[in-house]
Structure formats: structure tokens, C-alpha cells
Amino acid sequence: MQPKAKLRKDYRAPDFTITDIYLDFQLDPDRTFVTSKLTVVRKNPEATTLRLDGHSFDFLSLKYNGEPFSAFQKDDESLTLNLADVPAERFELEIETALNPAQKHLVTRFV
Predict the structure, then answer these.
(1) How confident is the model at residue 76 (pLDDT cuts 50, 70, 90)?
(2) Which GO terms describe its molecular function (predicted)?
(3) Measured between alpha carbons, how far is 76 from 88 in angstroms, rounded to an integer?
């Protein structure tokens, strides 16, 4: 599946920023595992969803401040977190994924 174009005219200031990123790669020619640890800051107190764009990977798990987190939806193009019940202004996300490094069209982007 081809990713959709992101146009400058559609830009709006982000509701969240990511201040720190830690990536751990377990490399393998057929299946590479990636653990992403993100420090997220809510810039808009009214924001209730965080969408993480990406495709061509297998989503394995999600943790919020070290605890399993299940308030999300996954489709072919993104992972959307429902943060309506998350009071924190600053929090940690840990996302585990797997991908096939032979695929040359991998793209991940945070929205």
C-alpha cells in the first residue's frame, strides 16, 4: 500500500511533541524487532488522540508509563491512541514492532 501524501497546506501545529526518543534494534535479515521509547508532551490540553503514522511493520505491543496500554486502534497506515482518560501532560510510550528489512519502502512518521 502506498502512503498518502502529506501536503503543506494541510499543516497544523501538533497537539503533542516528542522530546526524547530511544530506539533499540534487534537486527535480523528476515525480521527485525524495534523497541521505541518516546517521551511525549501534550501541547494542547484538549487533545484526546495521538496518531503515529507508519506502514509495512507488525505492531507487537504498547505501554504507557511502563504499563500495558490498550486504548488504541491500528490500521494499515497508523496507530491511533485514545488519550481521553490520560491526565498526564508528560508521559512515556514504549512501542514494540517487527519489520522485514528487505522492504525498502518503510516509512514511519508521527502526527
Answers:
(1) confident
(2) alanyl aminopeptidase activity; zinc ion binding
(3) 28
Give the range of the structural domain holding residue 76, as residue numbers without chain letter. 14-101
Which pLDDT value is given to residue 3? 64
Q: Is 94 among the domain residues?
A: yes
Q: Tell me the three cell numbers of residue 82.
A: 485514545
Mean pLDDT of the chain: 87
Quickly tell me which residue has 494541510 as its cell: 10
Q: Name, in order, each residue with C-beta under 8 angstroms of 44's C-beta and a sequence gap of 6 or more.
A: 15, 16
- State the Cα–Cα distance between residues 104 and 49, nearest whole angstrom: 29
Looking only at the bridges linking them, the beta strands covering 72-74 and 32-42 are: unpaired
Q: Quick check: 22 pLDDT over 80?
A: yes
The domain that holds 84 is classified in CATH as: 2.60.40.1730
